[in-house]
TrEMBL record:
<feature type="region of interest" description="Disordered">
    <location>
        <begin position="439"/>
        <end position="461"/>
    </location>
</feature>
<dbReference type="GO" id="GO:0038024">
    <property type="term" value="F:cargo receptor activity"/>
</dbReference>
<dbReference type="GO" id="GO:0016324">
    <property type="term" value="C:apical plasma membrane"/>
</dbReference>
<protein>
    <recommendedName>
        <fullName>Protein amnionless</fullName>
    </recommendedName>
</protein>
<dbReference type="GO" id="GO:0030139">
    <property type="term" value="C:endocytic vesicle"/>
</dbReference>
<dbReference type="GO" id="GO:0005102">
    <property type="term" value="F:signaling receptor binding"/>
</dbReference>
<feature type="transmembrane region" description="Helical">
    <location>
        <begin position="380"/>
        <end position="402"/>
    </location>
</feature>
<feature type="signal peptide">
    <location>
        <begin position="1"/>
        <end position="19"/>
    </location>
</feature>
<keyword id="KW-1133">Transmembrane helix</keyword>
<dbReference type="GO" id="GO:0031528">
    <property type="term" value="C:microvillus membrane"/>
</dbReference>
<dbReference type="Pfam" id="PF14828">
    <property type="entry name" value="Amnionless"/>
</dbReference>
<keyword id="KW-0472">Membrane</keyword>
<keyword id="KW-0732">Signal</keyword>
<dbReference type="GO" id="GO:0015889">
    <property type="term" value="P:cobalamin transport"/>
</dbReference>
<dbReference type="InterPro" id="IPR026112">
    <property type="entry name" value="AMN"/>
</dbReference>
<dbReference type="GO" id="GO:0006898">
    <property type="term" value="P:receptor-mediated endocytosis"/>
</dbReference>
<keyword id="KW-0653">Protein transport</keyword>
Length: 480
């Protein structure tokens, strides 16, 4: 019996949450055209300039003939098999008639906490198909239990400046190797490349542990929220876009106000975030009438105050953010309808799903009309109340429904219900850890193997040379 319970506990832990893989987008590869000030890769008649005092790690994939190259004082070239630099012998090079000075662009400013520099990928590194689910801005940057991937065959440089001294992660993959134990990561940090790849005052720490709670885990980027929003707004022109609705909602962890709806759920230990998200996508979001509606769902910590003044710690809750692509006076109305549908389904099935209460806020409709609590809003609210009354009749178990009135133009609808504990063990979504082994795996320095991942199987050695630049060098005809 004990053993069975233990097994069930383990299965439940594995089922906790699906792993999230986030991939760093920029690279400092030699062959990436945007890494050069002229927007093209240097060719034979060019003189290549790396800034003297800028630290770089540069991956070189193929052979290059160059006229001259000025190297930085401190840096590294990681040469793939077959890659090399040779001096241009003066012969004709098609497509490179002009020649000139080509400078390597500044890689210093790419910040870890810039949400535009990350993308969600599958465990193998393939881009995730764009679906109806998005992340609030703070969760677009790797969260505490996420897996981070730096693409194989790339070099990179990341500014880890953070408001927290330590940035926790489940794992980090570099050059096709997953580092998923504290010791393998520490060994990597002690190696030659890490100091060239990471700079800034935040220290990355690999824990090897995923989110242990099936009701979800908060992302953990709240302290760096202002940094994340500053980076995001820098990328989009320093200002949030003009919202199409009056008094847009301010979801926790999101930088700009949104039109649509948010739902905050209180949950019981039975709540399963991944399952609930799948259920919402399958049953509601995939309906044709909700095409163009996007949903973010995650556990967040909402700061509590006592009597509205004194801070009283933070309580975890599940935040659902619904936005849509409707324009003008219709902005947010589809999201609002979906929110009403979700509230209705909570009234019916909330108890069995581990949801003890839900609160909806809406901001939809036109700014042009200037009407506060305009028509669509009240119409939908009436619909919601009707739906809830229907559920009341159906279940006969809802305790009380109370309308909090209008707060600016948005409406709040609170539905509370007592919950009964129902024990369930979920075994359906077993999370399998994959050993990453890729044919293009590259190891450092002449086939010497470094497999700090513990679970990573050694890859067949590939010829690779790493040129460490410790002083100012200058390649002249004759090659290196
Ligand atoms: C890191 O430096 C930034 C300034 O770039 C500062 O705001 C932050 O508090 C520092 N973080 C730590 C943990 O010292």
């Amino acid at each position: 019996m004990e053993r069975l319970l233990f097994l069930l506990a383990v299965l439940q832990l594995l089922a906790a949450t699906a792993a999230v893989y986030k991939q760093w987008i920029p690279n400092t590869n030699f062959e990436t055209a945007s890494n050069w000030d002229k927007g093209r890769v240097p060719c034979a008649r060019d003189v290549v300039h790396f800034e003297k005092d800028k630290v770089v790690s540069v991956f070189v994939r193929s052979p290059h003939a160059l006229t001259d190259m000025y190297l930085p004082l401190s840096g590294e070239f990681v040469l793939a098999a077959g890659a090399a630099f040779t001096a241009f012998d003066g012969s004709w090079d098609p497509g490179c008639d002009s020649g000139g000075t080509v400078r390597f662009a500044d890689a210093e400013h790419h910040a870890w906490f810039d949400p535009t520099l990350w993308q969600d990928v599958l465990p193998g590194g393939e881009l995730k198909a764009a679906g109806p689910v998005f992340s609030v801005d703070e969760e677009r940057v790797p969260c505490r239990y996420d897996d981070v991937i730096f693409q194989p065959q790339t070099s990179f440089r990341v500014d880890t400046d953070s408001s927290q001294p330590v940035i926790h992660l489940r794992s980090v993959s570099v050059m096709g190797q997953e580092l998923n134990t504290p010791s393998s990561w520490a060994a990597y940090l002690g190696g030659p490349s890490a100091p060239l790849q990471f700079h800034g005052n935040g220290t990355l720490q690999v824990t090897g542990t995923g989110c242990p709670d099936k009701s979800g885990c908060a992302c953990g980027n709240t302290l760096d929220g202002p940094r994340i929003c500053a980076a995001l707004l820098r990328a989009s022109g320093r200002q949030c876009p003009e919202p199409a609705c009056q008094s847009p909602l301010q979801p926790l962890g999101h930088c700009c106000g949104v039109c649509g709806a948010t739902i905050n759920l209180d949950f019981t230990p039975d709540f399963d975030l991944q399952k609930y998200q799948d259920r919402l996508v399958q049953e509601l979001l995939s309906q044709p009438k909700y095409a163009g509606v996007q949903m973010a769902i995650s556990k967040v910590h909402k700061a509590q105050t006592f009597l509205g003044v004194l801070p009283r710690g933070a309580t975890p809750l599940i935040q659902i953010v619904l936005v849509d692509d409707r324009a003008g006076g219709q902005a947010g109305t589809a999201a609002e309808q979906l929110a009403a549908d979700i509230m209705e389904s909570i009234a019916q099935h909330g108890e069995a799903l581990g949801i003890s209460s839900g609160k909806m806020e809406v901001a939809a409709g036109s700014t042009a009309s200037g009407q506060v609590g305009s028509h669509p809003v009240s119409r939908i609210t009436a619909g919601t109340v009707m739906g809830l009354l229907f559920s009341l009749l159906l279940l006969g178990g809802i305790l009380f429904l109370y309308r909090k009135g209008k707060l600016r133009s948005l409406q709040m609808l609170t539905l509370e219900r007592r919950h009964q504990k129902i024990s369930r063990f979920s075994t359906s979504t077993l999370c399998t850890m994959q050993v990453r082994q890729r044919p293009d795996g590259v190891t450092r320095a002449g086939g010497r193997q470094h497999c700090p991942g513990g679970t990573t199987t050694p890859q067949p050695p590939q010829p690779l040379t790493s040129l460490l630049v410790g002083f100012k060098s200058h390649i002249t005809p004759g090659g290196i």
